[in-house]
Design goal:
- The protein has a single domain, classed as lambda repressor-like DNA-binding domains (434 Repressor (Amino-terminal Domain), Orthogonal Bundle), CATH 1.10.260.
- The chain is built from four helices and two strands, in the order ααααββ.
- Strands 1-2 form a two-stranded antiparallel ribbon.
- Strand 1 and strand 2 form a beta hairpin.
- Helix 2 packs across helix 3.
Length: 81
């Protein structure tokens, strides 16, 4: 599963450099996170807070309401009960 960080930044008019500054990490580190689609939950929380989105919005949505963690591979199905 891929991150949507670049897509969200573009929609919000935020550059990768600006986002890196907001979350207090090096631009190179943020670029690596985006390219490798891997980082800690803490970094994802910082990024989602800085972009003003829910953490789940950072992930590309795959099969309907099914999301997969890029770090551990756990699958989460989100739906109505």
């Amino acid at each position: 599963m891929k991150f949507r960080i670049k897509e969200i930044c573009k929609a919000k008019g935020v550059t990768i450099t600006e986002l890196a500054s907001k979350v207090n990490i090096h631009q190179e580190s943020l670029s690596r996170i985006i390219t490798k689609n891997s980082t800690s939950t803490a970094n994802l929380e910082k990024i989602s807070d800085a972009l003003g989105v829910h953490i789940s919005e950072l992930f590309e949505q795959s099969n309907g309401n099914v999301f997969q963690c890029p770090k551990c591979g756990t699958t989460l199905t989100v739906g109505t009960a």
